[in-house]
Batch of 2 targets.
Target 1
Amino acid sequence: MKLHFFKYQGAGNDFILVDNRQNTFNHQQPQILADLCDRRFGIGADGIMFLQNTEGFDFEMVYYNADGKPSSMCGNGGRCIVAFAKHLNIFKDETNFLAVDGWHYAKISEAGDWVSLQMIDVKDIDEDGDAYVLNTGSPHYVQCTTNLADKDVFSEGKAIRNSDNYRSEGINVNFIEDFGDHLFVRTYERGVENETYACGTGVTAVALAMAKHKNHTGENNTRIKVLGGNLNIRFNYDGKVFNNIFLEGPAKFVFEGYVNLI
Ligand SMILES: N[C@@H](CCC[C@H](N)C(=O)O)C(=O)O
């Protein structure tokens, strides 16, 4: 069987996308998905997504991490699948779709490469020592640091992700350096088990945790620089709940092709 795939990236977080509206591909095959995401023996990606039909929404996003296992929400993946759905003419400029964490609204630029994605509301932010722990659709550990450009994010992120508190469920680990007018963020991603160039639910978690840290209530707009580009997070914080959270940034088509499945 030949699989027709599309490759997209959002700030360097890269994904394989498959139009599975006819349900022709059975994606519950972890080894095949992991092989497709492999950067040396496959297409190469941080994750793979299937766009499917579902009742009451424009489409459903079914997301797997690069290890081939089903995952929680992927923010940059969500932005990329919106760009893919526009390419497939599923909607014009606004869409409502279903993901593993529920309903998402998104808006796309006319050129089809800049996506504002509404994320789930967030209430609970826990503390673990000097770090914040929260779920923005996926679980995140957020820690402030200095000299982030020189940090060994792979080793330190991996150690936290595999520590006693987080080993069984796993967690994504985000390090932040505050530059005043923007935050610089680097993320070790669960399921990729490596540092990625960007993580959408991760930068969302960072923006919310920093608003709590600085007690910034009201309308917030946080600019974030990641290894693969720039992202923006808008939200409202009333001192308890974060709502109207939007993750905004580039979502770009890279290439498409066919791959043989054995
Ligand atoms: N890249 C993502 C997060 C994908 C899920 C994550 N690897 C996990 O297992 O929690 C994003 O952009 O949010």
Note: The mean pLDDT is 98.
Target 2
Amino acid sequence: METGFRKFTAAIDQGTTSTRFFIFDERGEPVAKHQEEFDQIYPHAGWVEHDPSVLIKSVENCIEVATGKFVASGYNTQDICALGITNQRETSLVWDIRSGEVLYNAVVWADSRTAHIVRQLKLEGAANRILSKTGLPLSTYPSAVKVKWILEHSKAARDVYEAGYLAFGTVDTWLLYNLAEGHSGERLHVTDVTNASRTLFFDINTLEYDPFLTEFFGLEKLLLPKVASSSNSRAYGVLSRGPLKGLRITGCLGDQSAALVGQKAFEQGMAKNTYGTGCFMLYNTGNQPVLSRNGLLTTIAFQFENRPPVYALEGSIAVAGSAVKFLRDNLGIIREANEIGELAMSVQDSGGVVFVTAFAGLFAPYWVDDAQGTIFGITNYTKKEHICRATIEATCFQTKAIMDAMEKGWYSGITIKNLAVDGGMSNSDECMQLQADIIGIDVDRPAMRETTALGAAIAAGFGVKLWLSFDDLRGVNSRNHRKFSAQTTPTQRTRRFRQWERAVAMSKGWLTSEDIDKEYDD
Ligand SMILES: Nc1ncnc2c1ncn2[C@@H]1O[C@H](COP(=O)(O)OP(=O)(O)O)[C@@H](O)[C@H]1O
Ligand SMILES: O=P(O)(O)OC[C@H](O)CO
């Protein structure tokens, strides 16, 4: 049994596929955790929703079970000094601020039902202005278009909007609204700068909502959450129920930002790549937002209290672990996600198969709405092992395309010397070896790969002054990194990547404008 006074930090990690709760010690080692996968709702092709009440329930369960384990190990909950929240970004919810009644399922970031709205909005010629304010392209990915769709299709939401009571939130805001309260017992409607920077309502230069943007989307009456720094001693209140009731919440940030913090990539020039449901590379550009001309996003990486924001260039891949899940749940090629690596490596190569996993168009650096998942190069020789390999390679090739886009940009003189990785798919040695083989630089994986949750816990720890400077984190999550080095020649890499690029080019234009404009009944 552990004795003695220790300071623990806790983190809720509400991801796309699962929810987790962690309690970390001061070296960033998890001492208790619980994780639950929850149902994805796919009402039509390209649509993805989450049940808002399931999100809350899964967080409550995870807190309850992990806290039970913590106490059973002899620890005292009084020694947990702060809680951080991190979440899938862009996923959008609306509710009646008077009653808390939710008015539609959460429309998930990867959902592409808004392709027709985006096509129309692009015709208005404001895309460049929007990009320079928000760092985001007009696409199906950010929140604004999802909310616009909800208002066009849900009478209940529209009525509450017209009456001026429709609250909007990303998942962090939704959780804080339901599971927390302010220091005077008030209900919270709050978010952090990183989540706000994914909505298309927020100007990342001024750190304020921009009326031009809400007007552009026709959403002037929407109630937007207050925006606070990612590490903040007061804005996020305390937990209002459960075994950790009263625990201060002093960290809140989007999951990709949290992973950057968890990897301790605090300085300009540091980058990380997180292989979760999707895969997201963030490159720290310091205190200046840098706009990309090569299909990357500009985002707020994090902002600690009383400090200026830190920005990042981001390469977002919509489908990574979700393609592994697709092989498991839809095709039945594997029974468990962790089988894919071994199967992929049991063949010498993909046997000429290239899988463009554009389940809902392609994100960075391509931004193609009219692509759909396409498998090229199938022959009589093709076995499921080749498909497994091509599935992993799809994420690895997109990662290479993003690295190229970052390095090609004249704006920052970026060279990435090694790639810090984490997230579900990074658990597979085989996936990480294939990644190194495709990019030709070292892949660096920490032993403790729950960096997203750790990043939220670090933000929370700063909010209660557990740590005062980034130097204080020297001992946190620094043990046992593993390096994967390329076992390919430059010629092999170039040849394989060209084949991938050819496949991407051929997958474009599969959906016609008629397909895109097709509306389903709600
Ligand atoms: N050993 C593995 N090999 C390949 N993919 C994996 C492995 N373990 C998990 N995954 C994939 O990683 C994803 C989950 O990663 P995670 O970081 O938990 O995602 P999220 O935060 O989006 O919920 C799943 O889609 C799963 O298919
Ligand atoms: O659930 P993840 O980890 O793939 O992350 C989702 C992203 O935040 C979406 O932008």
Note: The chain has 16 helices and 24 strands.
